[in-house]
Amino acid sequence: MAKGQANEPTYSASDITVLEGLDPVRKRPGMYIGSTGPNGLHHLIWEVVDNSVDEAMAGHCTRIDVTLLKDGGVRVADDGRGIPVDPHPQYPGKSAAEVVLTVLHAGGKFGGGGYKVSGGLHGVGISVVNALSTRVILEIDRNGDHHQMEFRDGGKAQGGLAVTGKAPRDRTGTTVTFYPDPTIFEEIEFRAQTVTERLQIMAFLNKGLEIRFKDEREGRESEVIYKYNGGIVDFVKHLNAAKESLFRKVANYEQIEESMEVEVALQWNTSYNESIYSFANGISTTEGGMHEDGFRKALTNAINRYGRARNLLKEKEDNLTGEDIREGLTAIISVRLAEPQFEGQTKSKLGNVPMRSLVERATNAKLAEWFEENPREANQVVQKAIVAARARVAARSARDLTRRKSALDGAGLPGKLVDCSGRDPRESEIFIVEGNSAGGSAKDARNPKTQAILPIRGKILNVERARVDKMLKNTEIQALIAAIGAGLAEDFDLEKIRYHKIILLADADVDGSHIRTLLLTFFFRQMKPLVEAGHVYVAQPPLYSTLVGKEKVYLKDDRAKERFLADNPNHKNDFQRLKGLGEMDFDELRDTTMDYAKRSLLQITVEQAALADEVCSVLMGDDVELRRNFIQTNAKDVRFLDI
Ligand code: 0RA
User: Is the pTM above the cut of 0.70?
Assistant: First the structure.
């Protein structure tokens, strides 16, 4: 019988099976931790650490140690009050601690105040970690005793909680050691960087809390301590460390009401990007929400009021827009509330309406006060926003001009472009070539029906360092935009691209690497969908060639050469070193970059483009030490991204 018809039996309470214990978690792990991939695996750590952080937020814990053990386990130790060890009133014969680890959603504090981390996938309880582990060891120091208990195979208690000795003098705290179940997870290897990134943010968000990370795994030993007495003020300083801040001070204010609190820290830098990061109960809200809305609205309001009051903005002038004001802004908004509602596609948008009003009121009152107390800084912010507003108007007219131009003179293609004759973008490619001479050889070697050539002169503009209006005045940039034919930034329309392969052709030396980095930054910042859809490529001209009989064989680099020699021990050690694009002859250029069958192209990923962007943004910073560290860890090339 179809569902919902009149005589369908009705359900009564007795029909609903009460799911006991942890079986449901093992049956549908995704419901509790999101996935059984790397995200879900790391979620186990977050779950345990969140409990310790809750204890810190309640004012009872000052230090958390997270250790990746040699044998694949994870240990999280805190110096909180220790999970209660006395018998649980509702579960005869069981300690409260055992209940916390074996009953779903029993992880919360029994009564008492404080904000529990309880949104989205968080706050499901340590019992979930127990359910998804082959082994869990629980240790509690409380009432002067050291207690211990073990669970196996998805949370089966191996005897009860037992006193195994004395606690170290005056010590209280909880230590949870767990081993993820390999039959549940696709992979059970933790990634240190994923863990440390998160721990560092937790330390920033919990002022004064010391979080130590230790990797004891063989060959990967490392140790790091995060402790920030300045909290989110230190977070802002950290984010701006690689940039040039507009002034030294970091504005900071907080407001606490009955069941909600907000803390904000902000500073401007001389860049043109906005970096606002918001959190609710320590959880990153990447989709924004009420707290961000309230902040933005009040920030715009406070700056305009200040500008008017000080006559920095004249009567006849328009108000500054939020966008102008947020240019170069780095801000952290951290809120805590009793029952956070996480909404949106990725459940990372805060939905609690009263939070908007709290953040708005706090910002209107306290940020305005900060501006009054720091007039020099406030003036700088207003001046920067005024310049941004002018640039915005200039950029609009520059963009309109570009648009009108292309509407008027047909395609409006740049004079330097050697276009292909074919009109199907799917079959067309454009080579962006460094220098005019290389452009000339490329023109001879190409297939004129499908391959276009755009020579560009030397180094293009670093778009990280220039505002949109300046960028649009640059002739090389103009040529790029016009040739690709799909606009830029918000107006970029992937449907309109004139070529499906945008191929960067530059030498394998430092200069070539520099120009590639600048171009990738441009595409990443201004035509991101192009990168995301995989239309951007780098041609990799080989370093060597050699003759096998009459056929010329190309070898990418020294490794390829060695491998070739190993495979062909009788080959005469006679290799020609190719000097670079400018000096390649017609055949060489055709074989290595133009000929579909022989050439080697590297499709650029979003990650690679993002890295190029970071290289550009770091290179403009003043912090030499940070710059050196960044380049050493991220870019093979000493100066630029080497792909
Ligand atoms: C329930 C009640 C109390 C503390 C905790 C749980 C607690 C849980 C975890 C998990 C990791 N570390 C933890 N620390 C504490 C309050 C106990 C009291 O009132 O003394």
Answer: yes
